[in-house]
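Q: My labmate handed me this sequence with no annotations at all. I'd like to see what the chain might look like in three dimensions before we decide whether it's worth expressing. Could you predict it?
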Amino acid sequence: MNEQFPLPELSTDKDFAGESFAPIYTTTVTVSGGEAAHGRASGKARSDDGVLDIDLRMPAELGGDGRGTNPEQLLAAGFAACFHGALSVVARQEALDPAAISIETTVAFGRDPEDGGYLLQVDLVVKWPGIDPEIAAPLLEQADALCPYARMASRGTPTTITLDSHGRR
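A: Here is what I predict for the chain of 169 residues:
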């Protein structure tokens, strides 16, 4: 049995003229440190609704056991899903079937040559069998402009860091 999934009703139009950010959806994920007291090495990530509840582990390439999900995998999954959704929307607007589209996202964790710190690099490969590259190119540009992950990567994202020294574990 194939259950029909509802498509999102989000607009692709630039139809918001507010003076500040207007959240449509908000989620919270809490990461704790686990046995090593290090969220990346032995942590637990849990969403406020409990749907996401996973163990975090360092990949073997970074000295871990590789037996759990790592932050780069989570970022790659989120980026790929978001870009896929944006591309599907713009493809449908052009009466194209997005069923064959898949997004392969690679996230590389490495060193920044400018300051020696850590940096991420993201590469997306859009797999769309049979599409004419001249037809796809403007759709990829539209999806890039629509996808919040792509916008985050190109523009940066406003981030606040606040200490709650009274928080419970």
